[in-house]
Write a structure and sequence with these properties.
Elements (H helix, E strand, L loop, with lengths): L1 E5 L7 H15 L4 E5 L7 H5 L2 E15 L9 H5 L5 E4 L2 E4 L9 H5 L5 E16 L2 E8 L6 H13 L7 E5 L6 H7 L4 E6 L3 H17 L4 E8 L5 H9 L3 E6 L2 H8 L4 H4 L2 H17 L2
Parallel strand pairs: 1-8, 1-9, 2-7, 2-8, 9-10, 10-11
Antiparallel strand pairs: 3-6, 4-5, 6-7
Helix pairs in contact: 1-11, 5-6
The protein binds iron/sulfur cluster (2 copies).
Length: 288
């Protein structure tokens, strides 16, 4: 089963929930767990799980490199590029690597075979283990904007030989843009972690509209910091028939464990059974 843990708004405690589910699944329920931190702009699950990395690889985008001796300045490459990543001024071809999606269309369409492709490194992938949890994450290099290809590469790399009985936890970036789509694509269920505030509700709505409304992935909600804010998240979930699967109270002890990088299920043992039950409910709902 593939379970995405998403949030809409950043800073809702999504990774705390995802990590706690992974530990509960592996240690309490004895499942084979694969944890992918797909929040490649700010991966922080490793701060909680402390994995040992066994493999590392660079990833990037294949961007065009033009051979000036062959180029005639015909402009065909610029015409076919949908991302405005290449332009031709007179006989000069300008490439904008930060806009290039590495689709290869310019090289394919160049009548002079003047375009070669070269790797523009955008980040790294790392994989290893945190105890009996298989762990992988991607890290986008500072100043690079291409999160989505790294997430795609991470999923392909780690999930290539997937045991059908494994539980895959996809720790999604916040928001409701392309990196979220890439992360939750193929998930059987999406757990939305939110907080009961106007911002929490606003971003939850957008993420639910995307993941449930457009991608048809069933969703359930965890309300973190329950007790602050108002009841509008509750009302929204009731109106939309979205199950609220867990409430985590606004509590100093929980906040301290989080800021110290200790998973809630390790700091407060009672939560191990709470997250184990949450997982049981999710598995049942995903099978419906
Ligand atoms: S398509 Fe090829 S030959 Fe034409 S401008 Fe681009 S690189 Fe030069
Ligand atoms: S590889 Fe694709 S995106 Fe990049 S410059 Fe060529 S056509 Fe544009």
């Amino acid at each position: 089963m593939k379970l995405a843990v998403a949030s809409g708004k950043g800073g809702t405690g999504k990774t705390m929930v995802a990590v706690s589910l992974a530990i509960a699944a592996a240690e309490t329920r004895g499942l084979e767990v694969i944890y992918l931190d797909c929040d490649v702009e700010a991966p922080n699950a490793a701060l909680f799980l402390h994995p040992t990395f066994e493999e590392r690889r660079q990833v990037g985008v294949l961007v065009p490199k033009v051979d000036r001796n062959l180029c005639t300045g015909c402009g065909r490459c610029a015409e076919v590029c949908e991302f405005n990543a290449i332009s031709v001024i007179g006989l000069k071809v300008l490439v904008f690597p930060e806009l290039c999606h590495g689709c290869g269309s310019c090289a394919l369409n160049c009548p002079e075979n003047a375009i070669q492709e070269q790797l523009s490194v955008t980040g790294i992938l790392e994989k290893g283990h945190a105890g009996n949890i298989a762990f992988g994450h991607g890290k986008l290099n500072i100043g690079k904007a291409m999160a989505t290809p790294i997430i795609r590469d991470l999923k392909e790399w780690i999930l290539a030989k997937l045991n059908r009985d494994s539980l895959v936890i996809l720790d999604s970036p916040p928001g409701s843009a392309c990196p979220v789509i890439e992360t939750v694509h193929g998930a059987d269920y999406a757990l939305m972690v939110t907080e009961p505030t106007p911002f929490g509700l606003h971003d939850l709505r957008q993420a639910v509209d995307l993941i449930w409304g457009k991608m048809a992935i069933p969703v359930g909600v965890v309300i973190n910091r329950d007790g602050i804010g108002d009841r509008r998240v509750d009302e929204y979930c009731m109106e939309e028939d979205i199950p609220i699967l867990l409430r985590i109270p606004f509590d100093r002890e929980i906040a301290e464990t989080y800021s110290n990088g200790i998973p809630i299920v390790e700091a407060i043992p009672h939560y191990r059974s709470v997250f184990s039950s949450l997982l049981h409910t999710i598995i049942k709902k995903a099978a419906l």
